[in-house]
Queue: 2 jobs
Job 1
Amino acid sequence: MKILVIEDEKKIASLIRKGLEAQGFVVDVSHHGDEGYAAVTTRPYDAVVLDIMLPGRDGLSILRNLRERKLSVPVILLTARSELNERLEGLNLGADDYLTKPFFIEELIARLHVVTRRASGASQSILAVADLTVNLLTRDVTRAGRKIDLTAREFELLEHFARSPGRVLTRPQICERVWNYDFDPGTNLVEVYIQRLRKKVDGESDMKLIETIRGVGYRMKPDS
Ligand code: CA
């Protein structure tokens, strides 16, 4: 698995490189935003570990540009404890996960495994989370074998959750992906649909799969 680390603090970058290489990852390191962006747009990587504050292009600009160019390489942001706004913006821009410095290398490795597994599963036709199955070809949805009828929008919303269990989707992200709004309409549209989906998907089950992450958004319960 090939990972690009864009981090200007050389000590941190080198610790990450050593830790990942010890686990069999192939690692490229870039200490500059422009150089890192050039690397990720010209070479294939399985994931990018991206610092926010960088010389040249900063991490959030890199992420924004990647997603604008429809490059879906998984991105894990490295953020400082104080960078709450940047972290939320990063998730809005399509980061797959983030880690707050300082972190344990084992945690980064675990998250890299999760985001790359998700990415490689993107082309499969049946998504399964716990006892939920979502068939992308027939658009059949079942929970514990019981068929669930969903409207087209509800299906689309569920598909986004089921594609990446554990990943938090913010309200603006959901608006953009399900309704193609590039703005937050400021209504409770998302809440209404989440509620409907919950009723249909979680209503009769003890295990609630659709979770609210307070102040951030919603996610599908990660596989345990
Ligand atoms: Ca930095």
Job 2
Amino acid sequence: MAIEVKPILPRFGAEISGVDISQPLDEATRQQIRDLQDEWGVTVWRDTGLDDAGHVAFSRIFGHVELAPRHPGKPSRMPEPELFDASNLDIHGNINQDPSTRLAAGGNRLFHSDSSFMDVRAAQALLLCHEAPPHGGPTWFADSRGAYDDLPQAMKDRLEGLEATHSYFWSRRRAGYPYTEEEVDAKPSATHPMVLTHAGSGRKSLYVGAHTRDIVGMDRDEGRALIDELIAHATQDKYVFAVHYRPGDMTIWDNLCSLHRGGEYDAEHRRDMRRTTVREQANSSAIADDHYTSMFVTAKDTPFSPAEETVDKVLEKS
Ligand code: OGA
Ligand code: MN
């Protein structure tokens, strides 16, 4: 059966069918899938039949799959070290009532590019649904290449050569965590160009999201105003769509040409989502597999337990 491609927006996002990705694939099919991913930026795969091991194995067609970050002293529910737990469940598989987890979920509702705060950026992310809330607990996606294309030439000229800093702790602060500016200053960050050329398509793409903090060499307020303006531009309705999930469905997004955010759903319901992450460079295995964990250790990131009322207030405002 031939692979079928159903576009979601005219140049961004496509639903793919006609290939069983739970089975080993020949090289021609693998290449076809990589090409589709490069072209569409986000692909949606329904009813994949993938289990945890199959999820990790399929992810490897895109390159080096990294180990999921582990917070020191916080055990993971995931059976494979490559799986990142994007669920609302605790280590025992019950709905997580922990206030800081609820706050983190609030942070995930801001449009972002995964791992932009690391020197080695994430490329493809593969998010597989194991359990979904009744209305599918969506993920939203935004087209950073289309958004770049449509910028006025004067803005493209302005962005040429500019770099920005990205910090995990900054996006947490944006989401309501009580970090001060000075505390964020003291934590690790990464610096990346604000416009990149997407290797798989040769198209230019904006690289700005919730982790983006300051523009290098620019006044802080001016830089932040420009960052906010670019995020608002890139997340207009015409660049954005949502995917609702049923168990077995998977989305693959390319963090180097799209933004995404977790959507709203009724927090009373279980949502079990698991993600693998493929690194940007093909030969990036030279960098320590646990670079993420080292970042948290360097940052002395201590688990934070705000009062329930604090979280309610923060989430009401966002
Ligand atoms: C992620 C993420 C969104 C979602 O796993 O990186 O942002 O809908 N997930 O769970
Ligand atoms: Mn994410």
